[in-house]
């Protein structure tokens, strides 16, 4: 299969290189957002923890007196154009209109505007109209979105799979070649509690020599029920749980459950950004019934789509991410005054 996909990966690589060259030579316009921009992204197709990282970083910026707004594409949303996912003052769009990751950010950060638009400069203009006092933009999944100038490029590498298959899409999971790491200003190795981060650090040293490398850890903050009431692990229905995950790497969620001592009766995986319409909900019902499961446990990202739709009682495992190195934020903030690139 790898050999069959390799020609497609080569064609994809040529397209990526051509597009980046057009921006590098200014044949395509790079637009200014009007405020400093911190881009958070990766070179792999999903699964590195961008959403928990952006959530953590936005909270840290707020705690330091900054006024961030989040710009996202809004993967999986039903509409097009600009969607105000959250106005930062309580109003939120539906998860169908905003996309799952944007909805997670809006719920967790009620005071931070979140705007979804594939055209990030247009999204930035809308965010500034909502809140002129915005002092910094967080560009979610922005590493490859080179049409918007940024002051700092933060690139995430997953400690459990830093090379992402070692090949470009569709042969592997890389959206850009590993050499693109040289464009990073800061590299953060995520999930460093699950795997030795040294392999990712070595990869960074090889392709981005001199770029600072930091470690981020993910931890479970709790399990809640449909009323957002904390639930003790021992009070869960144990072997009658069905685990449901629509992620780029659902195995990571299932591994988290096992680390908590939870052995679900069924593990039901869907593609990333699964919409959870009648077909998906029917599959959950069938596979849960076949395994004898009477409840569902899922992720924050899937919760926002399954809430009010899941045919079984629903539990959510909440996580948070944080950078373990105290010098990361001072390093990041010290770079914000640089001219955008």
Could you characterize the architecture of this molecule?
The protein has 341 residues and is an alpha/beta fold. It has 2 domains: 2-219 and 322-335, Rossmann fold, CATH 3.40.50.300; 226-312. It has 10 helices and 12 strands. It has helices spanning 2-24, 50-63, 95-98, 100-108, 120-130, 198-207, 250-259, 278-291, 300-306, 328-335; strands at residues 37-41, 68-72, 83-86, 114-116, 136-140, 152-158, 186-190, 213-224, 241-246, 266-270, 295-299, 314-323. It has a 12-stranded mixed sheet with strand order 3-4-2-5-1-6-7-8-12-11-9-10, with helices on both faces. The model has no long low-confidence stretch (mean pLDDT 92).
Write the layout of secondary structure elements.
Elements: H1 2-24, E1 37-41, H2 50-63, E2 68-72, E3 83-86, H3 95-98, H4 100-108, E4 114-116, H5 120-130, E5 136-140, E6 152-158, E7 186-190, H6 198-207, E8 213-224, E9 241-246, H7 250-259, E10 266-270, H8 278-291, E11 295-299, H9 300-306, E12 314-323, H10 328-335
Parallel strand pairs: 1-5, 1-6, 2-4, 2-5, 6-7, 7-8, 9-10, 9-11, 11-12
Antiparallel strand pairs: 3-4, 8-12
């Amino acid at each position: 299969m790898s050999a069959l996909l390799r020609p497609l990966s080569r064609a994809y690589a040529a397209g990526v290189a051509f597009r980046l060259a057009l921006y590098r030579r200014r044949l395509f316009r790079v637009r200014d957002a009007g405020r400093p921009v911190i881009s958070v992204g990766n070179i792999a197709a999903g699964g590195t923890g961008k959403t928990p990282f952006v959530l953590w970083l936005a909270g840290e910026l707020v705690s330091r007196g900054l006024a961030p707004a989040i710009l996202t594409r809004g993967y999986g949303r039903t509409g097009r154009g600009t969607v105000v996912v959250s106005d930062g003052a309580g109003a939120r769009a539906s998860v169908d209109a905003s996309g799952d990751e944007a909805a997670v950010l809006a719920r967790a950060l009620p005071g931070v505007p979140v705007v979804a638009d594939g055209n990030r400069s247009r999204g930035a203009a809308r965010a500034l109209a909502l809140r002129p006092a915005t002092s910094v933009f967080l560009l979610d999944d922005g590493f490859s979105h080179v049409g918007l100038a940024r002051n700092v490029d933060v690139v995430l590498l997953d400690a459990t799979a830093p090379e992402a298959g070692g090949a470009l899409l569709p042969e592997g999971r890389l959206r850009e070649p590993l050499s693109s790491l040289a464009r990073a200003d800061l590299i953060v190795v995520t999930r460093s509690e699950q795997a030795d981060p040294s392999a990712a650090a070595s990869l960074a040293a090889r392709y981005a020599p001199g770029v600072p490398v930091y470690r981020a850890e993910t931890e479970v903050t709790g399990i809640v029920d449909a009323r957002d009431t904390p639930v003790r692990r021992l009070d869960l229905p144990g072997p009658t749980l069905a685990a449901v995950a629509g992620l780029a790497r659902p195995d990571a969620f299932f591994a988290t459950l096992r680390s908590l001592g939870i052995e679900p009766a069924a593990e039901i995986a869907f593609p990333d950004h699964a919409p959870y319409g009648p077909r998906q909900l029917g599959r959950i019902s069938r596979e849960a019934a076949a395994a004898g499961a009477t409840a569902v446990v899922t992720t924050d990202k899937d919760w926002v789509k399954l809430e009010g739709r899941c045919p079984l009682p629903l539990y959510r495992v909440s996580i948070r991410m944080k950078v373990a190195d105290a010098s990361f934020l001072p390093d990041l903030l010290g770079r914000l005054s640089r001219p955008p690139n």
